[in-house]
Amino acid sequence: MSEIVRITACQLDVRDAHRAAALAALAEHVAATRPDVVVLPEMPFSAWLAADPEVDPARWSDSVAAHEAAIKALVELGAPAVVASRPTTGRRNEAFTWSREHGAVGLREKYYLPDEPGYWEATWYDRGERRFDLARVGPARAGVLLCSELWFLEWARHYARAGAELLCVPRATPHETLPKWLAAGQVGAICSGAYCVSSNQWVPDGSPVEAGGLGYVIGPDGEILATTSAAEPFVTVEVDLDRARAAKRTYPRYVRE
User: Fold this and answer.
1) Are the CB atoms for 96 and 109 separated by under 8 Å?
2) Beta bridge partners of 10
3) Structural domain boundaries, residue 141
4) How many distinct helices (H) and strands (E) make up the chain?
5) Cβ proximity of 211 and 14 under 8 Å
6) Would you state the pLDDT for residue 182?
7) Could you tell me the pTM of the whole model?
8) Which of 44, 142, 246, 249 is 20 to 30 A off residue 64, Cα-Cα?
């Protein structure tokens, strides 16, 4: 018998003046669609720190505090399970899972860090350990790749071997590269034999980083199941975990290194 799970991807307006309204709208979507898992963007609860090449320790501390407060309020979102990332007091970007039963649980810290205009991540924080652990997210086993880590496809294959049914990818990526990120999600899904679920920040005006939105859910063989847009910033899709499990036995997942 198939094991059906409902998954939500989003593009979330993270601007200070818009974030609360965006989260309230997402909560309305969750109430209407009743997903089992919601994937949020990378560091969604404050302005994007790495847009600025000058490190400001006070801004980092403020972002840590803002994320702590928002995570405590995640119960108001109404979803049983959430995946996202947060800044830590140890100056890392940490993937975490959240559930009503256990609250926020740190999973792993971002390892592959870009360092270029708009994305001065290696300048702002340290890389984590080279660990790519599996998490239980609601009824599913999930691997989490934070934004740039999606391009390192050996870890998608690692998650295939680990038995992941979901490949969760919180992002903060710009408008002009969205076609690349959609293609990366398709290849990541194929390599992992999992449903690739990615959510992105949405910053549509002339901010230092104009994050482009485009959240998506992609099937284990690379088929695009749903994408977000300015008109439809949240999408919820029913996925069959048994299909992801069966995909591990088909090409190219079964081919061993």
Assistant:
1) no
2) 234
3) 4-247
4) 6, 14
5) yes
6) 98
7) 0.97
8) 142
Q: Tokens 């975990």 label which residue?
A: 241
The SS3 assignment for 141 reads strand
Q: Work out how many domains the chain is built from and give that number.
A: 1
Inter-residue contact 164 to 192 (CB < 8 Å): yes
Q: In the chain, where does DSSP find H-type helix?
A: 19-33, 57-72, 121-124, 154-162, 178-192, 241-247
What count of other Cβ atoms lies within 10 Å of the Cβ of residue 27? Answer: 15
Contact present, 46 and 78 (Cβ < 8 Å): no
Would 133 be classed as within a structural domain?
yes
| pLDDT mean values, one per 10 residues, the chain (257 residues) | 92 95 98 98 96 96 98 97 98 97 97 96 97 96 98 98 98 95 98 98 80 96 97 98 97 90
The DSSP call for residue 211 is B
Q: What are the tens digits of pLDDT across the range 56-110?
A: 999 999 999 999 999 999 999 999 999 999 999 999 999 999 999 999 999 999 9
Token couple for 197 = 């679920």
Q: In sequence order, what E strands does 31-165 have?
A: 37-39, 81-87, 93-99, 103-109, 115-116, 119-120, 134-137, 140-144
Q: Which residues pair with 99 in a beta bridge?
A: 81, 103
C-alpha gyration radius of the chain: 17
Distance, in Å, from the CA atom of 47 to the CA atom of 50, rounded to the nearest integer, reads 9
In a domain, 257, yes or no: no
Question: Would residue 256 count as lying in a domain?
Answer: no
Classify each residue of 190-207 as buried b or exposed e, where b means 16 or more C-beta atoms within 10 Å of its C-beta. bbbbbbbbbbbbbbeeee
For residue 121, is it left (φ>0), alpha (ψ between -120 and 50) or beta?
Answer: alpha
Residue at 254 is within a domain: no
